[in-house]
TrEMBL record, chain A:
Keyword GTP-binding appears in the UniProt entry: no
PANTHER family membership: D,D-DIPEPTIDE-BINDING PERIPLASMIC PROTEIN DDPA-RELATED, PERIPLASMIC BINDING COMPONENT OF ABC TRANSPORTER
Domain Solute-binding protein family: 80-426
UniProt similarity note: Belongs to the bacterial solute-binding protein 5 family.
GO molecular function: peptide transmembrane transporter activity
Lineage: Bacteria, Pseudomonadati, Pseudomonadota, Alphaproteobacteria, Hyphomicrobiales
Signal peptide annotation: 1-31
Organism (species): Pseudaminobacter soli
Designated name of the protein: Peptide ABC transporter substrate-binding protein
Database matches in InterPro entries: Peptide/Ni-bd (IPR030678), SBP_5 (IPR039424), SBP_5_dom (IPR000914), TAT_signal (IPR006311)
Automatic annotation (TrEMBL), chain B:
Domain of life: Bacteria
Organism: Pseudaminobacter soli (ex Li et al. 2025)
Family annotation (InterPro entries): BPD_transp_1_N, MetI-like, MetI-like_sf
GO BP: any one term: transmembrane transport
PANTHER family per record: DIPEPTIDE TRANSPORT SYSTEM PERMEASE PROTEIN DPPB-RELATED (PTHR43163:SF6)
Keyword Chloroplast: no
Family in the record: Belongs to the binding-protein-dependent transport system permease family.
Record carries keyword Metal-binding: no
ABC transmembrane type-1 domain boundaries: 96-325
UniProt GO cellular component terms: plasma membrane
Coiled-coil portions: none
Subcellular compartments: Cell membrane
Keywords: Cell membrane, Membrane, Transmembrane, Transmembrane helix, Transport
Name of the protein this chain belongs to: ABC transporter permease
Amino acid sequence: MTTLNRRDALALGAGTFLAALLAGRGISAAAASDTLTIAFNVNLPSFDPTVGSNATNPATQAIYRTVFDHFIDQGPDLAFKPGLLTEWGWNEDKTKVWMTVREGVTWHDGTPLTAEDIVWSLERAAKQETGNPIQFIWSTAGNYKIDGNKITGDVLRYEPTYFMWMAYLTGYVLPKAHYEKVGAEGFEKKPIGTGPYMVDAYEGNSFLRLKANPNYFGGKPPFETVVFKFVPDATSRVAEIESGSSDVTLDIPYEEFDRLKSVQGLAGIATPITDIGMIFITNVDVMLDKNVRLAAHHAIDKKAIVDRLLRGYGVPIDTLEAPNYTAYDPSVVVGYDPEKAKELLAASGYSTDKPAKFTIQTTRGLKPKDYEMIQAIVGMWRKVGIEADIEVYEIAKHFELRAAHQLAPAAFYNWGNAIIDPTTSTGFAMFGPSPHSAWKTEDLDKLIGPLWGEKDEEKRIAGWKAVSKYIAENGYVIPLLQYVQPIVFKSQLKVAPNQSGALQPVHIEKA
Amino acid sequence: MFLARLTKRVGIAATTLFGVGVIVFVLLRVAPGDPIAMMIAPGATPADIAALRAHYGLDESIPVQFALWLKGILAGDFGTSISIRRDVLDLLAERLPATLELATAALLVAILIGGGVAIVGTMLRRTRGESVVDAANGLLLAIPDFVWALALVLVLGVFYPVLPLSGRVNPQSADDFATRFYLVESIVTLRFDKFLEVASHLVMPTLALALPLAAVITRVLKQALAETMVQDYVLLARLKGMSELRLILQEALRNAVGPTLALTGVQFTFLIGGTVIVERIFSYPGVGNMAIDAVINRDLPLIQGLVLAFGLMFIVINILVDLAVVALNPRLRHG
């Protein structure tokens, strides 16, 4: 008979504990076949997609679009298509809006979606006191009237992008009866939408578990359960996918993307999205000299930056309209020409011996290789006669300085525009009265001003193209590149990339 | 005597917390990064921006804002988070248990490893083994917690994927707990499977936090033991034929542990600070992880609440350590 002494018992206990601990690994390992686990790049702090700073974060839209529905849907190719509204438009003279509400849609609690929900959501969004950051768009229409599933409303100020915003930031339909019953805090605890997945469990900064909505009007979703793991650290996201703990991840360093997509069992796609990188020029100091501005632009070899720093993952751009935007004009080209840059600087009395001097601000680590890109650009500038000091700041500081028109003469930033309209790119970034513009001069404002309310769509887009050309000719901003989003996933899956950058579970299915 | 000492410490703690509150409140408002600037809509007019500022109570002067905040705190209202849109006190109550379990586990592991290595090092003193222990300990001391975290992710998460990489529990079973103290609850309710699940998620973040502290404990305790081991009473015990291990455990350790305990208390506060990065790397839902988002979003009410919570934790820990040191040292106990 074997007897155990105290030491043996302790060793046995410890061994059993460790074995059980490691065996427990099987429980947390990812992906039963009906579960999709996404190692997501940001946390979801709040469920209400219509208020607060989080509502305008493009990254969280993937989750919001999964639980809620937009008034109007937008496909991965950015085409607008019926959502909770099946039809929409203006009347002939654009003094009225009209919409048709989809019938047979139910909320996650089983109650039917009604036209009242649509109107309540629109009216709530238009009220300043609710804190909707896109209130300035929603307040351009009002006095809505309901007739069955038809809604009409008055145009209070013509806004060409009114219906486009219905597919983007804060353009979500919320449940009137439920929200009024539980209030804002109650809604955070029990969010209800009409989307393809329903909230099942949530642990802030850790994960969100969703279950399929069997009554979804778009058909049963491909997975029974979807788990968004909030993994903001890129190294940890790489580990999640490489270890098999997650099925999909995104926005990892391009070096890791190239490595992982060749790992057996994994696949990768890289798609140009609607985010761009740019350098704001502020109309101060040496930047008041057109020659310096244009020289600064001509001196940058954007292709080299994309090829060498971003491993080819990026699309060089010369205007704030990326190739998949509505007002993109490929004929507007600035071009890399260091000799021309030197000539322009010489005309203003600058050379490598007597350089034009200014500060350039940049984030570090916010976007892929942001600081390294600016370092490379400063090196290119030095060769033609521009000496720039780099100042690193946090993104919050950028917002504060930009709102106060106190950015440095040059400042790196990234801009998103998933509705691909020129108002939300060139418009807000370059129009003087906008709190988000850095270049504020009358000549440009006179060109942009009349375009805001232009009712002739063809004329409006042509006008924005002319604005882009004028900006390029005068060097009022330095567009750098269109970003490419890397997604890595298990090869048993099929992922349809979304040009808006929103990685939605409904676009992922079993291969 | 004891009560008077405790009352005095509580009074000092309250004053310290008030000072922390003032400093944090003022610093947040003069530091770069306006929370309102991050929320301004593209088409916002100056009037819209002013309305937004008033909506979040940031249109008043700093003294008025502080007075309102202080009044709220005294009434148990820490304000509402700007980014999460929930009561700050509720959020703290929700997240603190996770951090407390992690920090406590890390402390226990650090004491076990640090204490164990110190004892082994003492037993091996004046041999080659001691040099090996010292070198290994120096290495542990030199590597910060976040590097340990990344190394553990690589080794135990990727190369030998035996442990979960993120979170506190498996997302599939997250709603199986009635309280936020998952580890404690699983022990109290005798649910061994749940205990293992929570423990497996704790291993890597705990080790990342514990290893640097363990190295500190080893260094201090080993030094203290070395000094104690040459005391007359220890020599006498050795002459009586006690083994080296019994000498350390029964004679030397009690006297050597005092300075180690005091230092461990101080280092433990640093360990709690370290949870900020470690929780981020492991997507662990504690107050540290939440603090990073709060800072990124310039969520002033939440940052203020978090700093007060951290301040309170530091103070409580220091009081507990002081009391423990007094309890262990009869000379201090009797004035």
